[in-house]
Write a structure and sequence with these properties.
By secondary structure, this protein is an alpha/beta fold. The protein has 11 helices and 10 strands. Helix 3 crosses helix 4 (about 135-145) and helix 5 runs parallel beside helix 6 (about 195-210). The structure holds adenosine-5'-triphosphate and magnesium ion.
């Protein structure tokens, strides 16, 4: 059995906390024709609340499969996954969706925004699913848009926005339900290096504020932002190290380290408040009925 992250390390921080994400002996097998693909082949992983993690590895090594599992978009073929103490692999689909909506915000390489819908309405979508009253919904979406620095563009549609601005909208949508965990699968994969830097500053800020941030990247300079780097190969974790000199931990970022030492109290509130959330799969569902959705400006 592979060795999990050493528990003793918890004692090294001021406030030891139980793992938010606990992956044990996880396998994910796909059968394609007569061929069996081991997308995940015995993964053990603990991630604590407030960690800032980069997952790296060659194409096909299982990064997205692991992210989908952590994000409750998928369940393992074998092994267990506990999210905040809850045994996710035992949940039925609708329970899985509820947990996902409450705990997880997803950001993708290709943004996954509804094309003919304003930035504000895109951000509101998860709250529409939560059947939140319109006024409250607007208020929260406006706050999330402001948080990513896009208030002045909130009535623009995605094609009226730059790539970086689109990704900011997607991040605002991921944040609008105040999830505990922000998952980003190659969030800078479609962006130039200057725009990537801006997006990474945003992730750094969110991590500094106590959000648990897990991102997949192929780029070393993107991974340098995280405080922990996990490398995968052939469905296995082959390296897992802390980087004390991560970009996010540098003093120029205004005391990011101290800010991240404590779990975000907002996360607790979010657990209680949020009902339905920010999965991109939902956005896709809405995309299918978009003309009926309209612009909820
Ligand atoms: N739905 C599926 N059906 C069959 N095989 C799959 C499926 N999803 C993923 N795989 C296979 O599982 C393995 C891991 O895929 P995954 O998408 O997790 O890789 P990745 O590390 O994210 O790669 P990339 O860097 O290219 O995004 C690959 O060999 C892939 O072909
Ligand atoms: Mg992938």
């Amino acid at each position: 059995m592979a060795v999990a992250e050493p528990r003793a390390e918890r004692g090294a921080t001021a406030a030891p906390s139980p793992a938010l994400i606990e992956v044990r002996g996880v396998h994910k097998l796909y059968t394609v024709g007569s061929q069996e693909v081991r997308a995940l082949d015995g993964v053990d992983l603990d991630i604590r609340r407030g960690e800032y993690v980069a997952i790296m590895g060659a194409s096909g090594s299982g990064k997205s499969t692991l992210m989908n599992l952590i994000g409750c978009l998928d369940t393992p073929t074998r092994g267990s996954y506990r999210l905040d103490g809850l045994a996710v692999e035992r949940l039925r689909d609708e329970e899985l969706a509820r947990v996902r909506n409450r705990q997880i915000g997803f950001v993708f390489q290709t943004f996954h925004l509804l094309p003919r819908t304003t930035a504000l309405a895109n951000v509101e979508l998860p709250l529409v699913y939560a059947r939140m009253p319109r006024g409250e919904r607007h208020e929260l979406a406006r706050k999330a848009i402001a948080e990513v620095g896009l208030s002045e563009r909130s009535h623009h549609t995605p094609n009226e926005l730059s790539g970086g601005q689109r990704q900011r909208v997607a991040i605002a949508r991921a944040l609008v339900n105040q999830p505990s965990i922000l998952l980003a699968d190659e969030p800078t994969g479609n962006l130039d290096s200057t725009t990537s830097d801006e997006i990474m500053e945003l992730f750094d800020r969110l991590a500094a504020a106590g959000k648990t941030v897990i991102l997949v990247t192929h780029e070393d300079d993107i991974a340098e932002h995280a405080r922990r780097v996990i490398v995968m190969r052939d469905g296995k974790v082959i390296s897992d190290r802390q980087q004390p000199g991560s970009r996010a931990a540098r003093p120029t970022d205004g005391g990011a380290i101290e800010a991240n030492a404590e779990p975000d109290p907002d996360d607790e509130a979010a657990d209680a408040e949020s009902v339905v959330g920010s999965g991109a799969d939902e956005a896709e569902e809405v995309a299918a009925v978009e003309p009926a959705q309209g612009d909820s400006r």
